[in-house]
Design brief:
Strand content: 35-45%
Structural class: alpha+beta
Number of strands: 4
Oligomer: single chain
Order of helices and strands: HHEEEE
Number of domains: 2
Radius of gyration: 19 Å
Strand order of the largest sheet: 1-2-3-4
Shape: elongated
């Protein structure tokens, strides 16, 4: 059975709404700050400038088996200009 144009549009709209809902749920999760990681005893294990305005910082802690990676975006056209997102690597 070949989908009609209207059913294809309806499916595309449904997928878009689902992606936006999932994306907003992730955006609402508070991320750990680099300042909090350093204060809690995490040490920088590695650093790389991924591309022009984004860097990745890897943190390790002697009491934890997992690592934490922070993505740092610096963009003078945004407000705030520095956007940081940290997440655990297990």
């Amino acid at each position: 059975m070949k989908p009609t144009r209207s059913s294809a549009r309806a499916l595309a709209c449904a997928l878009l709404v689902q992606l936006l809902t999932v994306g907003s749920a992730f955006a609402q999760q508070p991320s750990v700050t680099i300042e909090k990681l350093v204060t809690d005893g995490w040490e920088v294990a590695g650093y790389i400038s991924a591309w022009e305005n984004r860097s990745l910082i890897l943190f390790k802690h002697k009491e934890h088996k997992h690592l934490v990676q922070c993505s740092v975006l610096i963009d003078v056209m945004r407000n705030p200009r520095v956007v940081t997102y940290c997440y655990e690597l297990r």
